[in-house]
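Researcher: Let's try something more involved. This one mixes different molecule types, so please make sure each is placed in the same coordinate frame as the others.
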Amino acid sequence: MRSIIISTILLCSGLHIFGQEIESKLFASGFENVIVREEKDSTFVFFEHREFRDPYASMEYANLILGDRNNQELIWIPQFHNVPIGHYSAKYFHFKSLTGENKEYFKKHNKPLNNYRFHFRFHPDVAARFGFYSNPFEVKFNMVLDSRIYLLPGFSIQTGVRIPIVNSLDSQENYLSPAPSMLHYMFSPMENHYLAISTGTFYYDRYGLDFQYRYQKPDRRFSFGLESGLTGFYRFYRDGYRTSDMDNIYAVGDVAYQTGIERLSLRLSAGRFLFEDYGIRIDLIKQFGSVDLGLYASQTDIGSTAGFQFAFQLFPGKIFRTKRVEVRTTEAFRWEYSYNSFEPVAKKFRIGMERLADALRQF
Amino acid sequence: MLKKLFFILAFYVSSGATSQINFMGKPGLMMTPGTAWEEDYHLGSNFAVIPWEYSLFESSSELNTTQFYSVRAGFSSFMEVNLSIAHRPKMADRIGVGDRQLDFRFRLLKEKKYQPAVVIGLSVPGSTSPVMHHDYLVLSKSFKTRLGFLKANLGYGSPLVVRKLPGKDNFFNSLHLDRKEDLRSGNYLNGFFGGLGYMPVSFGGLMLEYDTRTLNIGGFLKIKDRFYAHIFNFEASSSWGISFSAQFPLDRKPKSLRDAKHNN
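Model: All components are placed in one shared frame. Result:
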């Protein structure tokens, strides 16, 4: 009897050490909010890795750090914005929806304030227009240095400074100003259903309220969602700021389909776009991993256009990392080119982070 | 002695396909498109200068010297997209950045022992003056000889082109089918075209082609499959075109992960 108790204690402490070892090893390599749940024959590891755009890169990285463990089945549970997405077996990256038990366990052990580093993120902000005769290449290039701080589960604040580099596009002069700053709340009310609400100042000179909903189950081909918002124009000037009323309403629903052919997917969106034009837009998206390429065409009641977009993780990624602080380049730099440079057809705007559709497509 | 030289040359020839990049950043020879497919380098960028005497924008004006800036993106093993801007710096105050063109390439057949590679190229309609448009089908076959790699291209450029009529609101109603020869620069890639590429060494070669307008010869150098430099001549004249091209992979893992793999 005594030997059974002793061996049980030893086994438990051994498991505990194993869990701590996973936690500290992963944390040292940039994984955050690492939570380890050990069960009889499998170990669940929750984590978020903000340097990588591609969650598969982070899981591959985790596999590499921990090496091969034959006797224990490892299950990764990657998070996005402090929300766990699902189970992935470390061996084959097979997806399974998050179980109720793990959801409860995460709720209990999720410590958003303690478990994340303070990030300094370099994020270029580029706007350009080609085609005006007097100045064919009009460019506005700012470097944004910002951070996202998790305050409560799924609830974060993103803010920073905008450092102007060049501007031949609009009337804004070159001086330091606040970067787009917003409060953001993401949660998953039901398995594979996600909601995100942001309020503050965004990119593309918009401010206001933004709402996103998405259903995305990574092992299903179809996903759908809704993006909506109430926004206005704002811009900082040397002597303060100017705003227009917050009275632009947009609402765009979409259905996306992963073709299963070489990671190509199609997305059909329809609704009322940013400049209150009604119409449709179709996207073809290719995922390379850290890079997404897209082509699109759209037609609304103010005109039609076509163009391309891309999003990628900026090189080199991590620049500097300690226990408390990380300096890195952005995980997602996104840019869109429209052939029609005169009419803002079917415009959307960036909120300062990847939209749910673009982030969840990666999983 | 000669045999030895042959052997050395044959040794230097890489076993992969020979590919060059044409003036619009697409796989091809100098002014004509080809069938090569960059499977590992999904993104390409190209810069080319075409002298005014042989500019696609036909008017006897020295202002027509054209700089081509292009980006090529490989979406899949069967579809590629190319965006080109034909910038005429001496006319920039009048025409702005220049004509933009978006086109697609589709690979219909891969090359096999007795089967040529077949590629179809289509321009996206939308220009009121579709000078840069070309729609074509091209076949090619490569041969490995003891003297190096030889590649033969044969293609047919559509004599018809879709033009957008100005001043119409609805995009689809504004499209109009025209004969290419009725438009300016109508004799480029209009009908049968073809060419030969010859690579005696793995880092460069010679090219000869007929683009339905002119007969061109040229040479190129390359570093692996990543960087290319071309120089070519039109109609044995004193006018030269040049182009430089760089190709990049897009499926690389993030640096931290690559470093970790490297250290493991």
